Amino acid sequence: MSATELVTTGQTAPRRRITRRGWQTVIWFVVLLAITAIVIYPLAWLFASTFKPNAEFGQNQSLIPWNPTLENYATVSEGIGGVPMWRFFLNSTIIAVSAVIGTVMSSALAAYAFARIKFKGLGIFFAAMIGTLLLPVHVVIIPQYIWFNQLGFVDTFVPLILPKFLATEAFFVFLMVQFIRNLPRDMDEAARIDGAGHVRIFWSIIVPLIKPALITSAIFTFIWTWNDFLAPLLYLNSPENYPLPIALRLYNDQTAVSDYGATVTASFVALIPVLLFFIVFQRFLVNGVATQGLKG
């Protein structure tokens, strides 16, 4: 029935009513939008501050710079302390990539042993491994430093990389153990009938099926290692060996006057690889966390 016919017959068109569910949707959308703005604002401020000259820091509290400049990027590109910026990036990349490879490989092997191989003391070793999650990292800093110092590994990347190849990350080992335990053992038994050993079963059957756990471990390891400040501060002494988190400190320590513009710009540049890494692999991260492998 058209609007003209409704007027002629004296009937009124029904008004659309917003249901309670519709109001709830609108409220949730507004709340999520506000939370998103709060989360994104620091990143937006960091990016906008890279175009602020040093004179505006402490005076210009707004997001938009008064006198935009690219001088900060030129300063950062030149490096600091006689070391070019690309060297800091290279050091961080070497440490982070090596840590990812070592953590994923060693954690997967340890998880396979806990989940598929029966040996004496299995329960005790697994409980001890889980117990390390409750052990603060600061407790082992001094013994580790003394050990690496006696071996002559201080001021090298070895103390930062070697522990990653020894399955020291109990969280990732536990994550992969839960994945492997949920896999049916029928595949293992069928492979053994065909003559496959533990190495073939692990590489050809287990590894492809726990790919979400491997990628999740790789993402967290990369982000944590890239942003790590304490360990490089303890073990690295030469500026040419510094990763980015330690290099950022030089912009405030080299003179009595801090170069805030260069510090902010270097911080933003150092953040870009982490953002790109997370954006590329975020769907794998969601699959790895949401999977049934965490059940057990």
Word description of this protein:
The chain is mainly alpha-helical. The protein has two domains: 60 residues, no CATH class; 215 residues, MetI-like fold (Orthogonal Bundle). 66% of the residues lie in helices and 0% in strands. The chain has 14 helices and no strands. The longest helix has 32 residues. The protein starts with a helix and ends in a 6-residue tail after the last helix. 24% of the residues are buried.
Can I get a quick summary?
The chain is mainly α. Helices cover 66% and strands 0% of the residues. The chain is globular, with a radius of gyration of 27 Å.
The CATH topology of the largest domain turns out to be MetI-like fold
Helix and strand string, N-terminal first? HHHHHHHHHHHHHH
What would you give as the CATH superfamily of the largest domain?
MetI-like
* Percentage of residues assigned to helices: 55-70%
User: What structural class do you assign from the helix and strand content?
Assistant: mainly alpha
Any idea what the radius of gyration is?
Answer: 27 Å
The CATH architecture assignment of the largest domain turns out to be Orthogonal Bundle
Distance between the termini: 61 Å
| Tally of strands | 0
Number of helices: 14
